Amino acid sequence: MLDSHGYAAQQANARLAPFSFKRRDPGPQDIVLELTHCGICHSDIHYARNDWGFTQFPVVPGHEIVGRVTHAGSAVTKFKVGDTAAIGCLVDSCRQCSRCRSGHEHMCEQHATPTYSGIERGTSRPTYGGYSTNYVVDQRFALTVGSKMDPAATAPLLCAGITTYSPLRHWKAGPGQRVGVVGLGGLGHVAIKLGRAMGAHIVAFTTSPGKAEDAERLGAHEVVLSKDQAQMARQRGSFDLILDTVSAPHDLNTYLGLLGADKTLVQLGMPAEPLSVRAMSLCMGRKRLTSSMIGGLPETQEMLDFCAAHSIGCDIEPIAIQQVNEAYERILRNDVKYRFVIDLASLRNQ
Ligand code: NAP
Ligand code: ZN
Ligand code: ZN
After folding, report:
1. 90 CA distance to ligand 1 centroid (A)?
2. Which atom of ligand 1 is nearest to the CA of 43?
């Protein structure tokens, strides 16, 4: 077994604190990564606080992971020692079902194994995430990172990037399409960059007047202050696609009203509380309300390659692991531009 060392929450609402644990010995298909960077996704906070009710404690969060390969098993062909590699939100799946075979491992009929707060398949060992020194992962569930990509700015792409790339592709964002992005946080800021690079007309919706200038710099063609009813009214009926990334309860009916007929609102944010929808908001114009969760391995690699080709990285604020609890508080106060990324050297040097 490999020694690993990270930060964990022992129970809901506990502060994250140092935690030592073991990882499996690497098998022939496994690589070992020495982790260098891990983004802080709002889902990490939902998990650490048990917002969704299914967290396995102790939880070492982190599923936006970049590291260096320090060991490659005898059957590994995709990586060699010294390469930069990445891990996203899942580290295994049944590999047999039709969804796994078609590259949609995240929707595995037997449930994919989450990078943290899960159980390794065929064992009783918990999975622990990327706020840690190392990770042992099957090469099939690791991603390659282009040599020109900045590892810190790449890390958040492993969740925020794929979560927004996948629905933009699925609902064919591109030239001639008006795409709304609601919420300018980790997911929202990268959605703007990706949608812009795909050629769509991007309108950012924010509750934070202080982010309006940034939204344009990130690539939005228009910015709407969502608390301003006159600005909202001007957008009615005009959208082909809206990605809603808001992490807290909010009124979906308003955004359904901004869609054109037969158009789609994709709810990506996962507030703990149920969202309420009036049937009338949907039937007037046969609108679609749907959702999407991360993406499979092939599409995640496609997203990383797309970002490399378009020089897309996340706007990050680097922090040391010792600042993680303060970072959580700041995210909950909506005070981050636009993703905290933990420099994991801070874990080794403490
Ligand atoms: P984040 O960085 O905290 O961003 C959320 C944004 O939502 C904030 O920046 C803010 O944008 C807006 N917001 C926050 N509170 C609000 C409120 N009360 N009313 C209206 N707007 C509010 O979070 P994130 O990491 O992007 O994650 C967002 C959500 O997506 C979380 O619930 C997370 O769990 C979920 N998620 C889902 C998936 C998936 O696969 N579907 C994957 C990853 C994350 P403004 O300041 O611009 O208003
Ligand atoms: Zn995430
Ligand atoms: Zn499967």
Report:
1. 20
2. 34
What type of residue sits at position 91? Answer: V
CA of 72 to the centre of ligand 1 (A): 36
Contact 104, 162 (CB under 8 A): no
Measure 89 CA to ligand 2 centroid, in angstroms. Answer: 7
Most informative mutation of 164, 187, 208, 336 for ligand 1 (most atoms within 8 A of CB):
187
Measured between alpha carbons, how far is residue 3 from residues 23, 141, 203, 240 in Å?
A: 6, 21, 47, 50
Encode the chain (350 residues) as per-residue pLDDT tens digits. 999 999 999 999 899 999 999 999 999 999 999 999 999 999 999 999 999 999 999 999 999 999 999 999 999 999 999 999 999 999 999 999 999 999 999 999 999 999 999 999 999 999 999 999 999 999 999 999 999 999 999 999 999 999 999 999 999 999 999 999 999 999 999 999 999 999 999 999 999 999 999 999 999 999 999 999 999 999 999 999 999 999 999 999 999 999 999 999 999 999 999 999 999 999 999 999 999 999 999 999 999 999 999 999 999 999 999 999 999 999 999 999 999 999 999 998 76
What is the distance in A from the centroid of ligand 2 to the CA of 147? 24
Say what the alpha-carbon torsion angle 129, 135, 140, 142 is, to the nearest 10 degrees: 70
Tell me the CA–centroid distance for residue 325 and ligand 3, in Å. Answer: 35
| Single pTM value for the model | 0.98
Q: Which residue has the tokens 């949608």?
A: 195
Which residues' Cβ are closer than 6 Å to ligand 1?
41-43, 46, 159-160, 163, 183-188, 206-208, 211, 245-248, 250, 268-270, 292-294, 331, 334
Residues 6 or more apart from 265 whose CB is under 8 A from it?
Answer: 241, 242, 244, 252, 255, 256, 259, 287, 288, 289, 290
**Are 202 and 177 contacting, i.e. CB atoms less than 8 angstroms apart?**
no
